[in-house]
């Protein structure tokens, strides 16, 4: 099993460590609920060093990134990032990722830990243009510092004016005594904050500096458990749960990152998605809230009022903030409208649920 | 790890408190810790006569769901209805406020098969 540069810190904090995507990762330190609410109200720190980083460079970098991703990178200025996905050749998704446009001829792709090897092989196999690609996953540490007070804490550690970094933009600068930290105004929580990328050898230095600076703000570590409940309150997709090799980005509500109109955006299997859009979708990923008491879980069946199966739950939990059971799942198109009544099969009972617009959590 | 001497335990991490021919049942401190934040305790077996090892309910945590098993055969007389609104009591006070059901014991001989505190400690490596 792989480890991140923060393992000894997690152990010292008494984290519950589990294997996730081949890495020994903290799932919870104190309580998922507490860690979740601390990020909604305050600031929390995730070790997300398991994420994969590929640096694509050279005169053909643009063409390769444009070809393997569904979003249109021509919309990016240097210093901007975008959410995107790698389409496969069967209408599904190889992975979802972030694309950072660092400079002309230089892009950073950040991919899911569980897919590092698969994505690497996929991108290399489609690199007909001859771009340079480097897998830097094992050298880079990543922390997600998230919550309404994240900027206040980190501003004590850097002279880079953090509140000037717009959402989905980034810069390189000194932070906590480390030069050239990639400071990115991104995250997976819906509570604001930044993600930091830096070499593994500074892991302890950066972690300790953040917690020293964050004392007055009640900064707490947060594990993968809270990361999952936070993203689900936002209706963000998790690869392997809500999207996979057999789900189309259009079905998943990711049409906004699947740019079909831009003529310059030529990507793998684009024609399939154009045809799929024209023909109309047969199913859609929806959010729902349970009305009856119970908790939806991955793979539970979704039923209509006569008890016929109309889909499956892809993610579900009890929302720690809203105190309601929420979930996502694919249903046949006719049941996908907001307000539709559907049923979730929980231990042989059909529990009533209502289709809801995501995010479930709307920032105050 | 809190493992009270006066209680009996099962391999499924339930505890049993015996009061004459009545028993109270809940889950152990270890079990609540493994499950994490408990958000729902579902018990629909009140009034039923159940055998040892039958499922009497389900406990839902944020990340996991787990079935609850009868430590002994008996009639489920009552449930702890405070857990309806405050399931987190199972986390904070598993042996007292977090009790789940009250049973009328059918066969006191079955009690001999339960673990005592020392045997339970050994089971969980505490």
Please supply descriptive tags for the structure shown above.
heterodimer; A: 364 residues; alpha+beta; Gyrase A, domain 2; Alpha-Beta Plaits; Elongation Factor Tu (Ef-tu), domain 3; six-stranded mixed beta sheet; six-stranded antiparallel β-barrel; 8 helices; 20% helix; globular; B: 126 residues; OB fold (Dihydrolipoamide Acetyltransferase, E2P); six-stranded antiparallel beta sheet; three-stranded antiparallel beta sheet; 35% strand
How would you describe the overall organization of this protein?
The complex is a heterodimer of chains A (364) and B (126). Chain A is an alpha+beta fold and 364 residues long. The mean pLDDT of chain A is 97. A six-stranded mixed beta sheet of chain A has the order 10-11-12-9-3-13, sandwiched between helices. In chain A, helix 2 crosses helix 7. Chain A starts with 6 loop residues before the first helix and ends in an 8-residue tail after the last strand. Chain A has three domains: 139 residues, 2-Layer Sandwich (Gyrase A, domain 2), CATH 3.30.1360; 77 residues, Aminomethyltransferase beta-barrel domains (Alpha-Beta Plaits, 2-Layer Sandwich); 75 residues, Elongation Factor Tu (Ef-tu), domain 3 (Beta Barrel), CATH 2.40.30. Chain A is globular and about 65 Å long. Chain A is built from eight helices and 19 strands. In chain A, a hairpin with a 6-residue loop joins strand 16 and strand 17. Chain B has 126 residues and is of the alpha+beta class. Chain B has one domain: OB fold (Dihydrolipoamide Acetyltransferase, E2P) (Beta Barrel), CATH 2.40.50.100. Helix content of chain B is 18%, strand content 35%. Chain B has four helices and nine strands. A six-stranded antiparallel beta sheet of chain B has the order 1-2-3-9-8-5. Chain B is globular, with a radius of gyration of 13 Å. The relative contact order of chain B is 0.27. The model of chain B has no long low-confidence stretch (mean pLDDT 96). Classes of the chains: A alpha+beta (364), B alpha+beta (126). The interface between A and B is medium-sized, with 16 and 11 residues.
């Amino acid at each position: 099993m792989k480890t991140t540069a923060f393992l000894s810190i997690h152990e010292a904090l008494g984290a519950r460590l589990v294997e996730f995507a081949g890495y020994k990762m903290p799932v919870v330190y104190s309580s998922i609920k507490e860690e979740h609410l601390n990020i909604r109200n305050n600031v929390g720190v995730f070790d997300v060093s398991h994420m994969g980083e590929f640096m694509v460079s050279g005169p053909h970098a643009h063409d390769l990134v444009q070809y393997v991703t569904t979003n249109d990178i021509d919309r990016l200025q240097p210093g901007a990032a975008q959410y995107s996905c790698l389409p496969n050749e069967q209408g599904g998704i190889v992975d979802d990722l972030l694309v950072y446009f660092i400079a002309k001829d230089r892009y950073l792709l950040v991919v899911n830990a569980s897919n590092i090897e698969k994505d690497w092989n996929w991108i290399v196999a489609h690199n007909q243009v001859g771009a340079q690609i480097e897998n830097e996953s094992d050298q880079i540490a990543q922390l997600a510092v998230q919550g309404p007070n994240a900027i206040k804490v980190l501003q004590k550690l850097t002279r880079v004016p953090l509140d000037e970094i717009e959402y989905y933009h980034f810069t390189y600068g000194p932070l906590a005594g480390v030069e050239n930290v990639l400071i990115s105004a991104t995250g997976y929580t819906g509570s604001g904050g930044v993600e930091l990328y830096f070499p593994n050898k500074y892991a302890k230095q950066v972690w300790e500096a953040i917690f020293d600076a964050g004392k007055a703000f009640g900064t707490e570590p947060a594990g993968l458990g809270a990361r999952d409940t936070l993203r689900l309150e936002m209706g963000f997709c998790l690869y392997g749960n809500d999207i996979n090799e057999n789900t189309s980005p259009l079905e998943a509500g990711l049409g906004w990152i699947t740019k079909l109109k831009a003529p310059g955006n030529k990507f793998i299997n684009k024609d399939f998605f154009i045809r799929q859009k024209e023909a109309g979708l047969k199913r859609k990923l929806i959010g729902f809230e349970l009305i009856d008491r119970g908790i939806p879980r991955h793979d539970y069946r979704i039923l209509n009022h006569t008890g016929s199966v109309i889909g499956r739950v892809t993610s579900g939990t009890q929302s720690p903030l809203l105190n309601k059971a929420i979930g996502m799942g694919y249903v046949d198109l006719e049941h996908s409208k907001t307000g539709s009544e559907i049923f979730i099969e929980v231990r042989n009972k059909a529990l009533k649920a209502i289709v809801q617009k995501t995010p479930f959590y709307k920032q105050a | 790890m809190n493992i009270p001497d006066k209680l009996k335990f099962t391999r499924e991490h339930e505890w049993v408190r015996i009061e004459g021919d009545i028993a109270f049942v809940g889950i152990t401190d270890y079990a609540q810790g493994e499950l994490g934040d408990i958000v729902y305790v579902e018990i629909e077996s009140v009034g039923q006569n159940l055998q040892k090892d039958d499922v009497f309910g389900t406990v839902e945590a944020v990340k996991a769901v787990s079935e609850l098993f009868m430590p002994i055969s008996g009639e489920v007389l009552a449930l702890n209805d405070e857990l309806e609104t405050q399931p987190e009591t199972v986390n904070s006070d598993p042996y007292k406020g977090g009790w789940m059901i009250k049973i009328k014991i059918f066969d006191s001989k079955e009690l001999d098969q339960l673990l005592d505190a020392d045997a339970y400690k050994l089971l969980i490596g505490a």
